Amino acid sequence: MTTTGFRPGRSRSGLILAAAAVLAVPGAAAAAPSMSVLARGLDNPRHVALADDGTLYVAAAGRGGRACQGRRDERICFGFSGRIVALSPRGAKRTVQGDLLSIAGPDGTFATGPDGVGVGPDGRVVTVITSGPPRDVRATPRRVRAQAGDLLRVLPRPLTTLASIDTFEWRHNSDGVRGDRNSNPYAVLALEGREVVADAGANAILEVSGRAVSLLAVIRGPGRSQRVPSSLAQGPDGSIYVGELAEGAGTGRARVLRLGPAGTRPTVVATGFTAITGLDFGPDGSMYVTELTTNFRSQSAPGRVTRIAPDGRRTRFTRGLIFPQGAAVAPNGDLYVSNFSVLPGRTPRRSPFRGMGGEVVRITGL
């Protein structure tokens, strides 16, 4: 995952080798909580969201395409393989929206595109599409520019553009960092009559009401550090909670913040995380936090999910989680997470990942 979709992840090869090392080491005996695979063959699955009828919607960022730019490790490929996928409680999958922008390395890894998905109380399903700095976006084909940075309503049909998130950042430079009008809409929360978007590139949380975009909060760090908001959830208190990637802050320095009323500063409610990529709340008020890795600086797997009970007690789960993203908690307490979230649906058996691919897993008993 990068803060902009129009540049490849500079640590891609290191992360691949780290994951391969984890796959090569036999695991310990299974113990509660447990994990099972709900669905396989998903191209770079990212955020997930549950509907009231039990359908799980997955933002699958795709696997890029055949039109490529750049050289060697800087090479990126554009396509329209991004999808919003619906999974039944038994894992049956169907594509509810395809043909979405996808940008990836030539091997289909580390794609970005439709990275976030949200389900509103009225049943509408929305997604956000990656973007980048204006110069990078303007250098792409017209069809790419037409989707980049958009908030889209997927259901009910037809596919509808609700707002241009990147245009807001390019005009306002939300975090005020000079020379950094960078946009990467990465997570979306669909609420009553509005959407809330985490723009990871802008370090900003935005609100969309109708077609109007406004700034809710800037997620700041000390000095010029980039906090990179990557996850959103509505808490039992009705507040909006934000998880940070905080890639440059180091291991254990990512935070969960709560947004107060308009005009107040975000407050820190939980610390000690690394590269947060998912956030949700359970029926008992527990907060669930997904971490892409447990040590970003050394680029090591596995990832982790932490449950924070209302009394503050933490329960952690790592077994089998390789670069997980997203979090959605069912009414019975089961947790859904995207796993191998930086891989296409299938990888070559002679590759470091030995045929593994993007999947969604269910964690019980956490």
TrEMBL record:
Residues 188-339 form the SMP-30/Gluconolactonase/LRE-like region domain. Keywords: Signal. It comes from the Bacteria. SUPFAM superfamilies: Calcium-dependent phosphotriesterase (SSF63829), YWTD domain (SSF63825). Residues 1-31 form the signal peptide. This is Sugar lactone lactonase YvrE. It comes from Conexibacter arvalis.
